Amino acid sequence: MEYDATFFAFVGLIIFLGLIAYLKVPGMMAKSLDERAANIRDELAEAKRLREEAQQLLAEYRAKRKEAEAEAQAIVAAAEREAAALTEEARQKTEEFVQRRNALSEQKIKQAETDAINAVRSAAVDLAVSAAETILKQKADAQLQSSLFAASIGEVKGRLN
């Protein structure tokens, strides 16, 4: 019998399959595939766990952001209240200052009026005394003039005090 190439290829295939079965290659392949499947399963579980952690962190950060926003709004509201209070206080102080300044100005005006009236009275008295002196010089003699002058000055001093 003649053996052609097909026969040798067939024998080689049988030997190859026998060798594979003897070396337990299908079991190793199955074991390798099982390990790979287990690794993929573990990686998927790890990815799922990491995803859940990320979602928890995201929820925490969102809650913290909301708290921070609420705190910022509270700070802004407190600042607005404080600014309003400071504005009101400044307005009241300004009004009090204006009232004090007005009272001081009115007091100064009254003092100036009093000083002016006193100056006018003093000038009128001086003028009256001068006029009386001039008239008395013309109509009275020296002795009468001195007695009248002394009496007038005493009377003027008495009225001014």
UniProtKB/TrEMBL annotation:
Identification of the protein by name: ATP synthase subunit b
Taxonomic superkingdom: Bacteria
Molecular function GO labels: proton-transporting ATP synthase activity, rotational mechanism; proton-transporting ATPase activity, rotational mechanism
Quaternary context: F-type ATPases have 2 components, F(1) - the catalytic core - and F(0) - the membrane proton channel. F(1) has five subunits: alpha(3), beta(3), gamma(1), delta(1), epsilon(1). F(0) has three main subunits: a(1), b(2) and c(10-14). The alpha and beta chains form an alternating ring which encloses part of the gamma chain. F(1) is attached to F(0) by a central stalk formed by the gamma and epsilon chains, while a peripheral stalk is formed by the delta and b chains.
Membrane topology: Single-pass membrane protein
A cellular component term, taken from the record's GO annotations: proton-transporting ATP synthase complex
Similarity field: Belongs to the ATPase B chain family.
Coiled coil residues, start to end: 30-96
Transmembrane segments: 6-23
InterPro entries xref list: ATP_synth_b/b'su_bac/chlpt, ATP_synthase_B_chain
Keywords: ATP synthesis, Cell membrane, CF(0), Coiled coil, Hydrogen ion transport, Ion transport, Membrane, Transmembrane, Transmembrane helix, Transport
Location in or out of the cell: Cell inner membrane; Cell membrane
